[in-house]
């Protein structure tokens, strides 16, 4: 604050240094209109406060001509230049059709979803380019009102996640297939190419249970009691009863699931089918259903979408990390139905477990380094170590290498989990036609019981409360 005559000009710079304000401090406010302040005086005050960039000449002139406006009130007198954030790097999956979004189905204008617009992942040949990585674009530095550069937020590096039977080029920017087969996305969006095992009909006792390191295609049905396990995808052209299906990638069932509360379907990526009835279904990413979900236990890491022409959910418990969407939820009989969104318990538990393991690794590293330090001191003092001490030194050095490797792996996984949790969109439940009474909604720790009908409504949390808005 600079005193000039019987008044003071007080300058305040914002915390981000992108704005400076000036205020005229004077004992008698009425004297403000009588003051005579020169532009030279104002600019000297700014110079003393090191404000050199973005000075608003018009405000300086107004302060000189109309000081009363600035008495005991901060007025912006300089604006910095805000930095422009960098653009994140991207991964282009070249085996997918142009403009196809593999992760999300096409949403129509009326809110329904066209599941069949998702093209099946094609066969690829050995040596075929599967994905290319584009680097992040640097941001543009800003300028503070004090003339200092403001470092922009850097764009994040995209990560090509390698699965089975794929190779990178030397620059690690291109991903190629190492074999002929079918591409499959598995946990954490890893890209794999698997060989294909086909059953030309139903799974029966002549076929038996299937456990295949690749993608499995069933051209018929899978009855109750059978088990199909695949490292890649499982594709069933018929229906699934109370069987057990487990895929590292996605599960696609053309004619639906009627499980009679037996068996289960588990997918590392998506589960896509026409209907789910009395079944237990889990997907790491999305559950996509074109007709109905009835009296079932359904879990999805991100979304459960049941928004086809019928698109009805009745009974059971549905849990999704991001969103549950349907045309109709519940019925006129108020059948109890539980919808839970916004929580990824498995990821949060994993993160807590990783942090705990990292603490142990770092503590063991500290003790190992301490032991090696003592041995090095003995070596310096005595010039050599006894055979026992040499053996101990070798063991400690090997232990350190193992702990370092383990720590790096845990840190890498920690970053993946944190990125997935950080990328969460606000959780929501969308109903495009009618929601009936009898629904229990759970958003994290918040609970709401539906006691009246809602039409075309989105439910989401705003300021710690479950609120509604109309879907257009």
From TrEMBL:
InterPro entries: FapA, FapA_b_solenoid, FapA_N. Residues 10-188 form the Flagellar Assembly Protein A N-terminal region domain. This is Flagellar Assembly Protein A N-terminal region domain-containing protein. It comes from Brevibacillus borstelensis AK1.
